[in-house]
Amino acid sequence: MKFILGVFLFALSLNTVAQESTCYGTTNNGRLGNGVKLPRSGFNFESYGNIPSLVGRTYVHSKVKEIILQAYKMLETEQPEKRYKYAETG
Fold first, then answer.
1. Which end of the chain is more exposed for a tag (fewer CB within 10 A), N or C?
2. For the residues of 54-77, what is the DSSP string, one character each?
3. Residue 85 zone, left/alpha/beta (φ > 0; ψ -120 to 50; rest)
4. Which distant-in-sequence residues (6+ apart) come within 8 Å of 75 by Cβ?
């Protein structure tokens, strides 16, 4: 019974993690479904401040998050002495 419950919970977690974001509408009149939050900081980047993060203004499309984090990773190698800041994304 515990094994079956474990498999069920594992499968459920994969579905939640793997769910891709969806954009609806337009820039002026739209919304983001299943948005993901950017991390507040990394090795060479940080949020401009805590307020945007606290009020939910650092959510982006799941693919955008991947692209942003890959870009910071590339910059980590190319320009290791620099630290970047991002503002709200909304």
1. N
2. HTT--EE-HHHHHHHHHHHHHHHH
3. beta
4. 44, 82, 84
> Any alpha helices (H) in 1-90, and if so which ranges?
2-18, 50-54, 62-78
* Contact indicator for 46, 40 with CB cutoff of 8 Å: yes
Find the mean pLDDT for residues 46-65.
91
Distances (CA, A) of 47 to 5, 55, 70, 74: 39, 13, 16, 18
pTM assigned to the model: 0.73
Q: Beta-carbon neighbour count of residue 10 at 10 Å? A: 9
Residue 5, pLDDT above cutoff 50: no
Question: How would you classify residue 56: left for phi > 0, otherwise alpha for psi between -120 and 50, otherwise beta?
Answer: left
